[in-house]
Amino acid sequence: MMGKKMAEEKINKPADPNNLTDGEKKHIPIINVPETIVAGEPFDVTVEVGIIPHVMEEKHHIEWIELYLNDKKIRRAELSLENKKAEATFTVEADKSLAGKESKLRALENCNIHGLWEEFMTIKMS
């Protein structure tokens, strides 16, 4: 499994975003951002895995969460079983040039059993 290239790995998406299964509800990343975001000033983004919180057990857990801003990787947070919750907080430093423009946040996470899942959010900075 480790030798597999990331590009080849399928990213799971809900079959019907308006009618999620319990499995989908446990794997879709939830992106939480501040109400006000100012370009040029750092802000924190918390990514939680699952509308129904994902378990963090030896046999079934989230291995890592990544956050991207406009396709640029911010960081990967490696999770361990000591993480009681499948979540990570990232500090994002968005360039002043993004002020007034729509930007895209992308959260990507990997479940040791159910693979890759992603979610997107559009944000606008002042």
Automatic annotation (TrEMBL):
Ranges of biased composition (kind: Basic and acidic residues): 1-13
Cited SUPFAM superfamilies: Superoxide reductase-like
GO molecular function: iron ion binding; oxidoreductase activity
Source taxon at top rank: Archaea
Region Disordered: start-end pairs: 1-25
Entry annotated with the keyword Iron: yes
InterPro entries membership: Desulfoferrodoxin_Fe-bd_dom, Desulfoferrodoxin_Fe-bd_dom_sf, Desulfoferrodoxin_SOR
Record keywords, A-Z: Electron transport, Iron, Metal-binding, Transport
Domain Desulfoferrodoxin ferrous iron-binding: start-end pairs: 21-119
UniProt-listed NCBIfam families: neela_ferrous (TIGR00332)
Family as reported in the entry's similarity comment: Belongs to the desulfoferrodoxin family.
Name the record gives this protein: Desulfoferrodoxin
Record organism: Methanosarcina acetivorans (strain ATCC 35395 / DSM 2834 / JCM 12185 / C2A)
Species classification: Archaea, Methanobacteriati, Methanobacteriota, Stenosarchaea group, Methanomicrobia
